[in-house]
Amino acid sequence: MVHEHSVPIAPKISTLKEFSNRFKNAEEIKKMAESYTGVPLIPQIKVLTLKGVEPGRTKVGRGIVYIKGFFILYIQVLLSKLGIRQWAPNLEEASDTLYNESCRISAIQSYCQVAIGGAYEHMNINLRHLNDIKLLHDTYSH
């Protein structure tokens, strides 16, 4: 989702089944996302999100983001651990389903890592807000 006004396509039923077979609650998702030793649910090569995005300056919407190759790799590894091939919340279901929870967790965690790494320095963001989980959750859920 690096194009302005892009709308996520609903995940395939097989993806949702695979996901629900792996995770039974939000705590399991959080543990996997934060784990450095967790075995990915899918191979990283099957993650489509950011596939073809080159490191460097990338236009996103009306702005420009400088994204390092490490950040692309980090996001793809995180998504593979959670079994997300294409980041896309299931807009046909409630926002608190486990799959949508995994999309929220991965988006917030990725945003924080990329922000700490300096990708948004030109936007002069306040890094102190990265520790305000309620603010990040509310912003994501707007």
Molecular structure report:
The protein has about 140 residues and is mainly alpha-helical. It has one domain. A two-stranded antiparallel sheet has the order 1-2. Helix 2 runs parallel beside helix 4 and helix 3 packs antiparallel against helix 4.
Question: Mind sketching the topology for me?
Answer:
Blueprint: H1 13-22, H2 26-34, E1 56-60, E2 63-67, H3 69-82, H4 98-116, H5 133-140
Helix pairs in contact: 2-4, 3-4
Distance between the termini: 17 Å
C-alpha geometry: globular
Mean pLDDT: 86
Structural class: mainly alpha
Attribute tags:
142 residues, mainly alpha, two-stranded antiparallel sheet, 2 strands, 42% helix, globular
Describe the structure concisely for a colleague.
The chain is mainly alpha-helical and 142 residues long.
